Amino acid sequence: MEETELAKRMIAGDRDAFAELMEQYQEKALRAAYLISGNHADSEDIVQETFVACFLNRKQLKNPEAFRSWFYKTLSRNAWKTCKKRKQEQPAEELYPADMPAPGNLLSELVLKEEERVLYQAVLNLPVKQRTVMILYYYNEMSIKEIAAVCGCLEGTVKSRLHSGKARLKHVLEEKKEGGSPWTILS
């Protein structure tokens, strides 16, 4: 069933429609929450809190076509609150030591290659709002307009965060690169 129809049914209180939406969003939501928070246990809590908040506040969603933006706005804000509580602005090495594999299977695909692991560490070092914009754009393939709605900021702010985030990542990755070819991820 189409997302908009499921959102309409969820707003009306249909738990089955909500369960189907949860199933559709579960994996990407966990990935986004993990990449924002940098903590596997926190990401599961963030996603659970987001689903509960979305169902409890379903009547606030006036436009069912905007479910995706509304959902990620709720998720991002929950993740930001968690980061603020836990002060997640710590070095990536503390969150993801080089000799320790990613927890669970959720991100195992992202860290298969050395470049991806280093990129992941660099993303965790970005400020939380910059990191969120990068994740929503590159991992969740959201448009700049959608991200602006999710983050509650102007499209220009989103573009600025993307530009400065990419520049910061490029700088960090170039520093870590020891000779050889340029990073294929940034090409």
From TrEMBL:
Domain RNA polymerase sigma-70 region intervals: 21-87
Leader sequence residues: none
GO molecular function: DNA binding; sigma factor activity
Record Gene3D superfamilies: 1.10.1740.10, Winged helix-like DNA-binding domain superfamily/Winged helix DNA-binding domain (1.10.10.10)
Residue span(s) of domain RNA polymerase sigma factor 70 region 4 type: 118-169
Membrane-crossing residue ranges in chain numbering: none
Keywords: Sigma factor, Transcription, Transcription regulation
Keyword Transcription regulation: yes
Family: Belongs to the sigma-70 factor family. ECF subfamily.
Protein name: RNA polymerase sigma factor
Organism listed in the record: Candidatus Copromonas faecavium
